[in-house]
# Entry
Amino acid sequence: MGNPKLLRKKLVAVLKAAICGFLLSEGLILLDQMAYVVWRHGHNEYVHDLGLQQLFYLSLGEPFLSPNIGQELPLLREKNPDCRIVISTNGIILNNDSKREAALSASHLLFSIAGTNNEMLKKYEHHGNFDKAYGNMRALADYRNARGLSTPLIEWKYLLFNWNDRRKTIADAIELAKIAGVDFISFWPTHNPFYGLSYRYRLGMLNHVGVKCWKGRELDLRSGRGPSFEAPGSNLKDPEKDQAPRSKMQRGTTIPSSITR
# Structure
C-alpha cells in the first residue's frame, strides 16, 4: 500500500485543497472526489485521525454518481461515528434501495429542487426532472421512516428565482414538502443566473415564511410550525392515504405524478 506517512501527507494536501476557506483546525471539510483516496488506498482511518467534526459534500458534483457510494458512506460512518456528514444532492439518481441505505449513513441530506414542477425546474437545471427528484426525496423519507429512524434529517433545498417565488408557488412547495415527509424546507436566494434574481425575496415579500436564517428562510416541519399564511383554495389529500386534508392549496395546483406513484 505504500508508505503510510507519505499517504497521510498526500491526503492532508488533498483535503487542504478541497476546503475552500474552511479550516482543518475547526474540523470543517468540504470534500471532493479526489479525497476518495482515503478509501481507494484502504486508509480511511486517516479521516478519523484528523478528528473531523463535520464533513460536507457540497457544490462539487453529485455524490451519488460514485459507483462506490454504497461502501464509502457506511465505511465513513463506521470509522467516524460522531462526525456530522452533510450531503447536497439533486436527487435524480438517489433512486434505489442500495443508495438509500448508503444515504442513511449521513446526518443531513439536502435535496436541491428549484421549483414545484418541471417547467420551473428546467429553467435552472436544464437536464433536471422534478418528478424524479421529488419522488426520490419522498422515497428516502419513507425508507428512513419504515426503519424507525430519525436521521438523516431530510431537507428540501428550494432555490429561489423570480419564476418560482410567487406566494402560491411557495405555499404549494410547503404542502408538497409535508406530503413527502421531509423535516425541513428552506428557501435559498441566489445570484446565478443574474436575471433570475428573486426580487420578491429581496423586497421582503417572503418574510412571512418560516424563520430567517443563513440560508434565507427555513421552515421546520417536525415542530408543526407552519407558515404564517394558508393559501385559499381546494383541499389536497395525500393520494396514498385516505386521510383528512393537511392544509389548503389554491385551485389550479398541479400535483406531480410522483405523488401518485
